[in-house]
């Protein structure tokens, strides 16, 4: 892995506060703030947790809702990690939904390529879609995908 894309937020004692994230992201922090503001409009919560297996803090994009009979439900829509100067969104698409995702009305050719050329994760029946973000350029397409994945 290149040094400039090194995974950050590795200290379990240092919470990923706005200041810590801003320092790590640098110029990409404005895009990150815009991304988190847009998450609220889509009823998605970003929950941070330190994972000992990967030895880093990861954000989990959660969509929570109440079912017809009052039960509490939640879906993990994406995972977020912080790198030096960028943040990465990983969306794991079930294999049975890949065609549906590919047929979403997404105009961004780069996002379409990510969907088209993703490879299945070994024996797991998921296709990982990875978005390296420094600006808001792909947000429109990414949020179409995120909205679709809320109900997977």
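Sequence proposed for the structure above (152 residues):
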């Amino acid at each position: 892995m290149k040094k400039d894309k090194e995974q950050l937020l590795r200290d379990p004692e240092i919470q990923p506060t706005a200041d810590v994230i801003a320092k790590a992201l640098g110029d990409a922090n404005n895009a990150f703030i815009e991304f988190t503001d847009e998450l609220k409009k889509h009823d998605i919560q970003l929950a941070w947790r330190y994972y000992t297996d990967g030895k880093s803090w990861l954000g989990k994009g959660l969509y929570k809702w109440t079912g017809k009979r009052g039960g509490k439900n939640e879906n993990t829509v994406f995972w977020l990690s912080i790198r030096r100067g960028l943040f990465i969104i990983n969306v794991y698409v079930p294999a049975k939904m890949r065609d549906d995702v590919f047929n979403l009305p997404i105009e961004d050719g780069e996002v379409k390529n990510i969907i088209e050329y993703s490879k299945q994760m070994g024996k797991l029946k998921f296709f990982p879609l990875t978005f390296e973000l420094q600006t808001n350029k792909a947000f429109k397409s990414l949020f179409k995908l995120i909205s679709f994945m809320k109900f997977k």
